[in-house]
Design a protein that fits this description.
about 240 residues
Length: about 240
């Protein structure tokens, strides 16, 4: 029996990257998973067979979409046990003064407001059920700075604080809220960085390699499961030692 056996799990951004790996690992641990994404999730659903994985097209920056997602999860499974907020975009690189307002608004809307909206509509369902676990995927850039990432870093820093606030608000209602800060993980977002930039990032990795999405997903499963019953409001850096420098 898996550590998430029978749990109803929503994973935003579940069609690719860390979200995809999380969907597959949660399903393998016995969860019934809803993939929420703007991208088609057919490939991850096929890869998860024969487990119970379903898709709901969702724009996490749209409150009506998110409200419908959470209502649909409860209608489908009777309750909502776990929310994993993995949806996010990189937003491009530019110095703060050169960063466009349009790009800034888009990154904040998806990476920060999207996490807020998903928590806003998931938490009441968890309160009604009397339990729940939320795992927010932030970034080491919520902990340290990196030039030319003003919107991304600001959004991920905000996710850390949203996590801590909600953890305190709902701790007495058996709802745990935690945050993972992945380091440089070999996902489509990192693969889009030019080769010279990837090499520079690799040289800063104490462990000597980039992380794998499965390694982040393993941490998600731990925080979603009863194995972490005494853990809430925590920020986990899963970064190969990057933030220890």
């Amino acid at each position: 029996m898996g550590v998430l056996e029978g749990k109803a799990v929503v994973v935003t951004g579940g069609a690719s990257g860390i979200g995809r790996a999380t969907v597959l690992k949660c399903a393998a641990e016995g969860a019934r998973v809803i993939v929420a994404d703007v991208q088609d999730a057919t490939p991850v659903i096929d890869a998860a067979q024969p487990h119970d994985v379903r898709f709901r097209r969702t724009d996490v920056s749209n409150s009506a979409d998110v409200a419908a997602l959470m209502r649909g999860a409860v209608a489908q499974h009777g309750h909502l046990d776990v929310l994993v907020n993995a949806a996010g975009v990189g937003g491009g690189s530019a110095a703060t003064a050169d960063y466009t307002e349009t790009d800034f608004d888009r990154v904040i809307a998806i990476n920060l407001k999207g996490v807020f909206l998903c928590m806003k509509y998931a938490l009441p369902e968890m309160v009604r059920a009397g339990r729940g676990a939320i795992v927010n995927i932030a970034s080491i850039l919520g902990l340290v700075g990196l030039p030319q990432t003003p919107a991304y870093a600001a959004a991920k820093g905000g996710v850390l604080q949203l996590t801590k606030v909600a953890a305190l608000e709902y701790a007495d209602r058996h709802i745990r809220v935690n945050c993972i800060c992945p380091g440089m993980v070999d996902t489509p977002m990192l693969q889009g960085v030019p080769a010279a930039g990837r090499q520079q990032l690799l040289q800063r990795q104490p462990i000597g390699r980039f992380g794998e999405a499965d390694e982040i997903a393993a941490a998600v499963v731990f925080l979603a499961s009863d194995a972490s019953a005494f853990t809430t409001g925590a920020v986990f850096a899963v970064d190969g030692g990057f933030t220890a420098q």
